Amino acid sequence: MQIYKVGGAVRDRLLGRPVSDVDWLVVGATVEQMQAQGFRPVGADFPVFLHPKTGEEYALARTERKSGRGYGGFTFHASPEVTLEEDLVRRDLTINAMAEDEHGALHDPYHGKVDLEQRLLRHVSPAFAEDPLRVLRVARFAARYAPLGFKVADETLALMRQIAESGELQALTAERSWKEIERALMESEPQVFIEVLRRCGALNELMPELEHGADTLAALHQAARHQQSLPVRWACLLRGLEPTAIKALNQRFKVPRECQELAVLVGEFAEQADQALALEPTSLLEMLQKFDVYRRPQRFEDFIAACEMAAVDSSYPQGRYLRDAAAAARAVDVKPLVQQGLTGQALGEALKAQRLEALKAYTQQ
Length: 365
Description:
This protein is an alpha+beta fold and 365 residues long. The chain is 52% helix and 10% strand. It starts with a strand and ends with a helix.
């Protein structure tokens, strides 16, 4: 039995980046041998075990064969006869197909270290084209490592284009696609993810609504620079689309509710926000009511942030204006109205009237 550290932990150590998760590969062992040493099996599709003390995952070396469409269309074979090289060759990129043994020696049969040095994202073998999810993964890695100067190798981009043209991307589940999109959006250069998908034709297959969204990529880039949240980044990417297009994208990928809501609200009210300094108090109140700034202040703050990210320059006075307007409306005290005996609809109307007066006073300052 031989145990190797594999994948991202090896890659990031060589890049001098922090290593968070470690993947372990076991060559030359059986399921029975692993269990005899106290490892607990957890893999549903292929043998993966939890270390009895550390809880880290250890996978038996395996090969795979294409047996159907999509990300899950593979048959796996794990046995003591599978070599390290046979296991590594099934991985996506050469920089992810390196291993370190217990002595720290590097095993690099597919020249991942050279590609690290040359800043290339290159596929390991032609079998890359069998898994459509790898198109999204490579685009995500391009977004992550863009600050270090990494590019997708021409031959790998050609394979990604081949996958896009094959229709295999349509076999991906919404959940798997969104997981990659979500992770890509939270990378340091998320706009690169979209650019790579566009270059290989995958964007037109997965998100055709974004095919001509150069302005939204600039907003997305700003959102990443300012370390904005996932809902803000998703809203920046979808800003400017028609409501039907925003709804279609939200539904297609089963986007989390918080991201869905903010994207829809940005689509509906961003132009009003840009004209906030000229809004009548009644329009301003309608906007604040729509956002429910009294019970959900963070959603309105996220909305303003998304608008700020899309500003042509760094100056966006509308942001502070809207924040102060919301504060003025929230400052109206409901207690005196309750003490007057108002309830239900009457209370709601009286509260709305007082908030409107507060906004009139604010806009006249």
